[in-house]
Amino acid sequence: DLQGHVVLIHFWDYASAGSLRSLAYVKSWLEKYGDYGLTVIGVHTPEFHFGTKQENVQDALKRLGIEYPVLADNQWFVWTAYGNRVWPTVCLVDKDGFIRFTRAGEGGYDQVERMLQALLTEAGIHGELPDFTPPIHDIDIPGVLCYRATGDIALGYLRGPIGNPEGFSPESTLEYAETGLLLPGRVYLKGKWRNERECMQFAGQPGEKGTASVRYEALEVNAVLAPEGEESCSVQVLQGGVSLQGEIRGGDVRQLPDGSTSVLVERPGLFHLVRNKAFGESLLTLTTSSPSLQIYQVSFVTSPIPEALHTN
Predict the structure, then answer these.
(1) What are phi and psi for residue 101, nearest 5 degrees?
(2) Does domain 6-136 sit in CATH 3.40.50.850?
(3) CA geometry: angle at 87 spanning 83 and 91, to 5°?
(4) CATH topology for 153-301?
(5) What pLDDT digit, counting tens, does each position of 257-295 carry?
(6) Do the two domains 6-136 and 153-301 of this chain adopt the same fold?
(7) Looking at CB atoms within 10 Å, which of 2, 46, 49, 135 has the fewest?
(8) For the chain, how big is the Rg over CA atoms in Å?
């Protein structure tokens, strides 16, 4: 019975980078305000089909340390009822069951927490409440100006175009030729790739390789990858034609004894590939010989403009 409780509803997807960044705030708020009567309910609305599988979501909940209730909204019924459009979305419900605040997308965490404290006070909480959670990421600082990063790139013939002139052939395998000129913000494939609804799956024979390249502007790069079936996939990660060095390796990238850098895809989900030292333009290339590799999306993280950061 939630009557008399302030409820925070977090609409998210475990394969969404923005959802995971916002999750850090949600967990912080529950830790601080749980004893004051805050209840948190997660609503997992999956963008991709693999997110509808219970075992994948349960694995994500365990890895992320989520212990509060999470509803599997596989048919998007709850998402639609609340009129949501983007991941993540946070809704605050007051003690009488009315939605009093909605924040769509990232940012505005100080506004959410300010309203959260106001609703707790309305619910009868008296005395001094905890200090606000400080910005966890530089891009969360209120009023900060950020660079314009490359937009998220979705793959699959129903989701977005690719850079190759061959285009798509739905539910079929195409052999893509190397393209000389790579325009920014497009994924260019080389080798044999099967065109799926939500992704592109490498379909080469043993010994063959496939590549996916993208020219981008950002500070960090993530990719949604999956192994088809039970097999795991190894994906070599290059930037500017060379292996990732030192600090720029993303959290899911490992360096092998020969100096190459790769990510091992053992489950479907989000993988952190690149963490550049500064915002800028780069060429990222993923190479694989694993015929079960699926690429769903490549997403990018911006950075505050240094001059703007120092003035805030």
Answers:
(1) -155, 140
(2) no
(3) 55
(4) Jelly Rolls (2.60.120)
(5) 999 999 999 999 999 999 999 999 999 999 999 999 999
(6) no
(7) 2
(8) 21
